[in-house]
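S.,

Sequence below, as promised.
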Amino acid sequence: MASSYPPAQLSLPAQSAAPAVVERQEGFELPAHTSSVAKARARLRSRLQHWGFPEDLGHTAQLVISEFVTNAVLHTDTVHIGCRIHLNGERLRIEVRDEGTQSCAPQLRSALPDDVHGRGLQLVGALAQRWGVSAHGGRFGRIVWAELGMTSTL
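The prediction came back faster than expected:
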């Protein structure tokens, strides 16, 4: 003979309002020199670790900032490079600002199999949820930016 029991009653804690969106940002400036690529990566890595970001997102973010700073150093006539990282909820935005003229805006290239260079922005496009270029304001310069989701990985 089977017994019948009333359904179990689960006691759940009272639901509070939706958690507040965590918003954090940091900006820094570097000289337009090849050594600044490693400095930008290290600064970004340190900040993301401090914010408790997953390590795989940190690797992706470092690749993105490396590409943007390298392009600013090698392909623009800038003296200073500004970097900004902005966390807003589930999205990390990386921005690199240069002082270059509009005639040297970043361009996607089609690299041949044996080419050593020319794939960086393609990698950024594959890893980022969105990326783009916008005018910096004023007479010259631009901001190259990318947005990564918390699930972005290498």
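The longest helix spans residues 55-75.

Coffee later?
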